[in-house]
């Protein structure tokens, strides 16, 4: 066969939004997929192998965009999302709860809501009201984005 007879479809590197991983390797503050949503793990415990079964990992995780807690056990493989963190400078906060962020290339990103975590929400609002220059970290996974932390870089 010549090279002309081979036709391959190209895809982006990292085209998959998730990957499998052994449940026993997941640690606190890691991420897993539950019911099709990315979740941050806030607690992990492992049970020993029983007489008729396998060792299991027990997770208590927090769904970041909804703020709900779940408790669930997994015996072997678990689905893990590809998670990315990006920093943006906070420009403005609208009355309806959306933020305006400055990207690296100078454009604005206006499609994110303020976080649901009360402590982080008050830090962002208070710092912005005081006129501080704030940089927010945005975590993105499986097509979802959320502000996860805040850095104060000084006065405007």
Could you name the CATH homologous superfamily of the largest domain? Nucleic acid-binding proteins
Domain count: 2
Major beta sheet, specifics? Answer: 5 strands, antiparallel
Which fold does the CATH topology of the largest domain refer to? OB fold (Dihydrolipoamide Acetyltransferase, E2P)
Strand content: over 45%
Residue stretches low in confidence (pLDDT < 50, at least 5 long) are 1-11
N-to-C span? 66 Å
Q: Main sheet: which strands, in order across?
A: 9-8-7-10-11
Proportion of helical residues: under 10%
Q: Which CATH architecture of the largest domain is right?
A: Beta Barrel
Give the oligomeric state of the chains in this entry, treating copies of one chain as homo and distinct chains as hetero: single chain
Q: Whole-number average pLDDT?
A: 80
Shape annotation: elongated
Task: Give the class from helix and strand content and strand pairing.
Answer: mainly beta
Top CATH class of the largest domain: Mainly Beta
The radius of gyration computed from the alpha-carbon positions, rounded to a whole number of angstroms, is: 20 Å
- Helix run count: 1
Question: What can be said about this structure in brief?
Answer:
Belongs to the eIF-5A family. Helices cover 8% and strands 51% of the residues.
């Amino acid at each position: 066969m010549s090279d002309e007879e081979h036709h391959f479809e190209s895809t982006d590197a990292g085209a998959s939004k998730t990957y499998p991983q052994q449940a026993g390797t997941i640690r606190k503050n890691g991420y897993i997929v539950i019911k099709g949503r990315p979740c941050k793990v806030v607690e992990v415990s492992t049970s020993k192998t029983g007489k008729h079964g396998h060792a299991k990992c027990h997770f208590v995780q927090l769904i970041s965009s909804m703020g709900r807690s779940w408790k669930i056990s997994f015996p072997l493989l678990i689905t893990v999302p590809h998670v990315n963190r990006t920093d943006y400078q906070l420009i403005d906060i609208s009355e309806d709860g959306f933020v305006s962020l400055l990207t690296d290339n100078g454009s604005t990103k206006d499609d994110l809501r303020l976080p649901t975590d009360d402590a982080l929400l008050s830090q962002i609002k208070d710092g912005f009201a005081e006129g501080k220059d704030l940089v927010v970290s945005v975590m993105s996974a499986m097509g979802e984005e959320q502000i996860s932390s805040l850095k104060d870089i000084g006065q405007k």
